[in-house]
TrEMBL record:
Gene3D superfamilies: 3.30.420.40. Its EC number is 2.7.2.1. Its main location: cytoplasm. The gene is ackA. Signal peptide: none annotated. The record marks H180, R240 as: Transition state stabilizer. Catalyzes the formation of acetyl phosphate from acetate and ATP. Can also catalyze the reverse reaction. CDD domains: ASKHA_NBD_AcK_PK (cd24010). It is found in: Cytoplasm. GO terms for cellular component: cytoplasm. This is Acetate kinase.
Length: 397
């Protein structure tokens, strides 16, 4: 069964075509700058053959039209006709309280996704456009919604609700939702496949990229995560501030003369590594500046490393210990420095990194702890597309 996986952004569409249940990727690519003059589409087949085109792509519907035409282009050797497509799986960022698992999309589900727009105003509208564009292109094809928030629905209520008047929770669903759920779920399941049950009862997953979050996973279920009502909460990130004193918000608004839009811009786009370093939101750029002696860049890295370390300690308490710590995401998979600095000082808790192993690992599955160490530390590249394909395959089947 060939399943098309779509991750629709406001001006982009990432896609993979996956043959299930073998999980073989037979085509993948990216549509960029939708609505702009220099829009483009790039597609690669399983043999590595690549096609890149600059096109007039005014909207998502046109982007999907071009995508399907390239997937069926005889020269690309991906599929011969659209009849080979069995279903489409969509990454939907926010499912609110309504969606605790992936679902087959129908009219009621679309209304439910639309009702979550105010919870994810930058993401859900773009996700919806992807669904609508596919329905236009292939009317009646089975489409499945896979929610970033669904995996975290297992977090107990006493950990998810904020200490605000309970009416705000009851009226608006104001609570911790968590994000990156598909990634946290994938790497925890993969760890179970690799290491078995004896080392995967209590897992801490560290999804570290330009956005980042940690999750405490007990017996396969998320019981705590660092992102909250919005993706701004939790870790210091590329441009997001993470958790700060709520009292700082009205203080900044008053003294900097910012309205709510200005505050949102500040905490989501001007803070984090970017705000502290003054250099970049990219961990690699900040590391390079720190190596050259930039003190603000050094401070930014120290803050980031400490933030992750703090959550690891907190989640060890939540879990009552830890069997395995997993690093994933762009930074987690590729930065030996980040992994080493984050875990430095945790040796007394049984968490040790083998520097020789760690320095060799970039973007591959690997154990980076000493042999027979009490706590396993490993790197597992995330694969959210496969997780979406699995859910789509199960539901459509």
């Amino acid at each position: 069964m060939k399943i098309l996986i779509l991750n629709s952004g406001s001006s982009s569409i990432k896609f993979q075509l996956i043959d299930m249940p073998s999980e073989e990727v037979i085509g993948k690519g990216l549509i960029e700058k939708i609505g702009l003059k220099d829009a483009s589409i790039t597609v690669k087949n399983a043999k590595g053959k690549k096609s890149s085109l600059q096109l007039n792509i005014p909207n998502h519907a046109k982007g999907i039209e071009f995508l399907l035409s390239i997937l069926t282009d005889v020269n690309m050797e991906i599929i011969s006709s659209l009849d080979e497509l069995s279903a489409v799986g969509h990454r939907i960022v926010h499912g609110g309280q309504a969606f605790a698992k992936s679902v087959l999309i129908n009219e009621d589900v679309m209304h439910g996704i639309e009702s979550c727009i105010e919870l994810a105003p930058l993401h859900n509208p773009a996700n919806i456009k992807g669904v609508q564009a596919m329905e236009l292109a292939i009317p009646g094809i089975s489409q499945v919604a896979v929610f970033d928030t669904a995996f975290h629905h297992s977090i107990p209520e006493h950990r998810a609700i904020y200490a605000l008047p309970i009416d705000l929770y009851k009226k608006y669903g104001l609570r911790k939702y968590g994000f990156h759920g598909t990634s946290h779920q994938y790497v925890s399941l993969r760890a179970k496949e690799i290491y078995g049950d004896d080392k995967t009862s209590k897992i801490i997953t560290c999804h570290l990229g330009n956005g980042g979050s940690l999750s405490a996973i007990q017996d396969g279920k998320s019981i705590e995560t660092s992102m909250g009502f919005s993706p701004t909460d939790g870790l210091m990130m590329g441009t997001r501030c993470g958790s700060i004193d709520p009292g700082a918000i009205p203080f900044i608004a008053e003294h900097e003369h910012l309205d709510m839009a200005g505050i949102s811009e500040l905490i989501n786009k001007k803070s984090g590594l970017q705000g502290i370093s003054g250099i970049s939101s990219d961990y690699r750029d900040v590391s390079s500046a720190a190596d050259k002696g930039n003190n603000d860049a050094k401070l930014a890295l120290e803050m980031f490393h400490y933030d992750v370390k703090k959550y690891i300690g907190t989640y060890m308490a939540s879990l009552g210990g830890v069997d395995t710590i997993i690093f994933t995401g762009g930074i987690g998979e590729n930065s030996a420095q980040a992994r080493r600095e984050i875990l430095k000082g945790l040796e007394g808790l049984g968490i040790v990194v083998d520097d020789e192993k760690n320095d060799k690992v970039m973007g591959i599955e690997a154990d980076i702890s000493p042999d027979n160490n009490g706590v396993r530390v490993c790197v597992i590249p995330t694969n959210e597309e496969v997780m979406i394909a699995r859910d789509t395959f199960d539901i459509v089947s």
